[in-house]
Write a structure and sequence with these properties.
182 residues, alpha+beta, four-stranded antiparallel beta sheet, 35% helix
């Protein structure tokens, strides 16, 4: 069995697309996944399944969720190993962040085109900084995420790929849950 992390985009935000976590766990369990756990209300599901291609798994989960919930939910699936690599390859010194600085990680559904990357690089910020590594964008927000130009929506528009963003504390907590086996 392999441990996976499914990141659901856009649920329980601003009172839209409400999904209760116990319902979400039931849906994932009904798909044959084991040790299903959720973390906070923003759509983080940690589970175990027989090893399979993450893209195929993503498609299957999206179809099941739309059928069960009645609306589409974009999903990005990572293996526990990929999740660990995201933490290990972080280009920012997390321990050196000031109290008002926040680190966020945007997970991209696919690698952006060169054109998209160039458009993103043309965006400058005197306050915030980003680093792009394949399908992962690290965003250092020096005045908090609400004030950053590099929001999830902004990244999606510039890179022309679907994305979902989590703060560093969530990244760490999800990793901890994943180590416990889904």
């Amino acid at each position: 069995m392999a441990v996976y992390i499914a990141l659901l985009r856009g649920i329980n935000v601003g009172g839209h697309k409400k999904v209760k976590m116990d319902n979400l766990r039931e849906i994932f369990t009904s798909m044959g996944f084991e040790n299903v756990k959720t973390y906070i209300q923003s759509g983080n599901v940690i589970f175990e399944a027989e090893y399979q291609d993450a893209r195929e798994l993503t498609g299957r989960i999206e179809v099941e969720l739309e059928g069960a919930l009645g609306f589409a939910v974009p999903v990005i699936v990572k293996t526990a190993e990929e999740w660990q690599a995201v933490m290990e390859k972080c280009p920012f010194d997390v321990d050196a962040l000031r109290e008002d600085e926040k680190l966020h990680v945007s997970f991209l559904a696919e690698e952006p085109s060169r054109e998209g990357i160039q458009k993103l690089k043309e965006t400058e910020s005197d306050i915030d900084e980003f680093k792009l590594q394949g399908t992962t964008a690290y965003v250092l927000c020096r005045q908090g995420y609400k004030k950053t130009v590099f929001s999830n929506t902004f990244l999606e528009k510039k890179l022309k790929v679907a994305a979902t963003t989590r703060n560093w504390n969530s990244i760490m907590k999800i990793a901890e849950i994943g180590k416990d086996g889904g």
